[in-house]
Automatic annotation (TrEMBL):
Protein name: Cytochrome P450 714C2-like protein
Example of a GO MF term: iron ion binding
Listed Gene3D superfamilies: Cytochrome P450 (1.10.630.10)
Record's subcellular location: Membrane
Membrane-crossing segments per the record: 12-33
Cofactor(s), names only, from the UniProt record: heme
Membrane topology annotation: Single-pass membrane protein
Protein's UniProt keywords contain Membrane: yes
Length: 551
């Protein structure tokens, strides 16, 4: 009996030791050996970068450079009135700007054990844009570190899972299927404008409000109705919790091994919100399936797609529905609300362009006519303004792709598991690509379209991830129509937008202190950059409508 007990103990001990050694090797390989091999393969091809530290990569250096740049920006802001420049990328991402100047258009850096090849080399950017093989996919951190937020939906999945979902979802976004949403957007925008008018009357002709908050609510209202139809109030609750989840996840770093498993206060909040959101979405789905009749909203499109969806590569039908409902939030709410805020702010700073856009809007909307999708496409001036806004302030800051196998891009061999990062604003504000006025607001550059506006049209990529749903342009075109509807309604409803003081100034803040939210590739990189919460003063100035002052 004693011998049997000793033998059992030895067996247990050997299993524990084997497991421990295996765990150590796994950690050693994932944290040290594999990242080092990836960097070495690119370093041997002449691509350099800052030296990373153990576990944290270049995170500490990034924070140091950013704090130094912020201190410099504050000092400059005290001494001088800032120029009316939109060249914000070096201020918000000084480490990327510094390394690009030091190492060239392609360089390596890391956040934790996440290895990134940052590139602004246009030949490689063009190759990536033209690459349609499933060998290039989305970074794995989107489904791991950002899993509670994005899951394995169409915006975050790769390879066969992405391809399978795309075949189901993409047809639901063809232009003929989204035209019916124009009236929904018009109604919601008019409702917001009426609330502004009522508040102006209540305040005896003048009112100061934080416009971006109302624009967020407008965007949330539209996407809630578009997604959930008659259940839009439940949709608003879902989107509110998604926003809270997004803010909680913005506090976490990407690429640090094991951080998402620690039961910290922030992680517990993330787990709680994820569970609540999933439960709310499934509740709406269950209610929808019990209804005898229902509208053709985005939720129904996803549910119809799920009818032909079998559990694929471990992704269940239930997860397919939940994750893609979350993805619709980012594809709709985030991009529209942020771009709308920037567009109105830029029009406020540009009276000439504001007058041109308003004249076009009034011409299109004569005799109370509300334009349909076809009329919106003919609004050339408004299109130019939106394209220029998206150039200066793209909804997403980076395009990031993961090499799912070794890939050759113009003689550069990208090893499997290397993340390729393209900083969108660095390309869209390049003097070499856009000319000497690249840092200025000049919609005229788009008078003959994107091809004539830039030396290399592929450098314009504000909707790169959204366009990737279909490898085509209908979804970006639909996004432009969304923005046109809302801006058209707002400009028709008032007389003037005017700036008062510095465009970026909010109680003395510099551009580096602009509100940044969301998720991205590096430590706390933004999913989107947003304007400061500047108040809009509304007051009736003449019979034509209210006067809007931004300041």
């Amino acid at each position: 009996m004693v011998e049997k007990t000793e033998g059992l103990n030895l067996l247990i001990l050997s299993v524990v030791l084997t497991g421990f050694v295996g765990l150590l090797f796994h950690l050693y390989n994932g944290v040290l050996l594999k990242p080092k091999k990836l960097r070495l393969k690119l370093q041997n091809q002449g691509i350099k970068g800052p030296c990373p530290s153990f576990l944290y990569g270049n995170i500490h250096e990034m924070k140091r450079i950013q704090l130094q740049a912020l201190s410099t920006a504050k000092s400059a802001h005290k001494d001088l009135k800032p120029d009316f420049s939109h060249h914000w990328f070096p201020t918000l991402f000084p480490y990327l700007d510094k390394w690009r100047n030091e190492y060239g258009s392609m360089f390596l850096y890391s956040t934790g054990n996440l290895q990134l090849l940052c590139t602004t080399d246009m030949e490689m950017v063009k190759e990536i844009g033209l690459h349609k093989s499933l060998s290039l996919g989305k970074p794995s951190y989107l489904t791991k570190d950002r899993g509670p937020l994005l899951g394995q939906g169409i915006l975050s999945s790769s390879g066969p899972i992405w391809s399978h979902q795309r075949k189901i979802i993409a047809p639901e976004f063809f232009p003929d299927k989204v035209k019916g949403m124009v009236n929904l957007m018009v109604d919601a925008t008019i409702s917001m404008l009426k609330s502004w008018e009522s508040r102006v009357e209540w305040e005896k002709g003048i009112l100061e409000i934080i416009v971006d908050e109302d624009l967020r609510n407008l965007s949330a209202d539209i996407i809630s109705r578009a997604c959930f139809g008659s259940n839009y109030s439940k949709g608003e609750e879902i989107f509110s919790k998604l926003k809270a989840l997004q803010m909680a996840m913005a506090k976490t770093y990407i690429g640090i091994p094991g951080m998402r498993y620690l039961p910290s206060k922030n992680n517990r909040e993330i787990w709680k919100l994820e569970k609540e959101i999933d439960s709310l979405i499934l509740s709406v789905v269950n209610h929808r399936t019990e209804e005898a009749t229902h509208g053709k909203d985005l939720l129904q499109m996803i549910l119809d797609g799920a009818e032909t969806y079998d559990d694929y590569k471990g992704l269940s039908k239930e997860r397919f529905i939940v994750d893609n409902c979350k993805n619709m939030y980012f594809a709709g709410y985030e991009t529209t609300a942020t771009t709308l805020s920037w567009t109105l702010m830029l029009l406020a700073a540009s009276p000439d362009w504001q007058a041109r856009v308003r004249a076009e809007v009034l011409e299109t909307c004569k005799d109370g006519f509300l334009p349909d999708a076809n009329a919106l496409r003919n609004m050339k001036t408004l299109t130019m303004v939106i394209l220029e806004t998206l150039r200066l302030y793209p909804p997403a800051t980076f395009v990031i792709r993961l090499a799912l196998e070794d890939i050759d891009f113009k003689g550069i061999m990208i090893p499997k598991d290397m993340n390729i990062q393209i900083p969108i604003p660095a390309l869209q504000q390049s003097l070499q690509l856009w000319g000497p006025d690249a840092h200025q607001f000049n919609p005229e550059r788009f008078a003959n379209g994107i091809v004539e506006a830039c030396k290399v049209p592929q450098a314009y990529m504000p909707f790169e991830d959204v366009a990737n749903i279909k490898h085509e342009v209908q979804q970006p075109d639909k996004k432009l129509e969304d923005l046109k509807v809302e801006i058209k309604s707002e400009l028709k409803g008032f007389l003037n937008l005017m700036t008062k003081g510095d465009l970026f100034s909010d109680k003395g803040k510099s551009p580096a202190e602009s509100s940044v939210t969301g998720v991205g590739a590096s430590a706390k990189s933004p999913f989107s950059i947003e304007p400061n919460a500047l108040p809009l003063t509304i007051g009736r100035s003449c019979a034509d409508g209210p006067l809007f002052l931004w300041g």
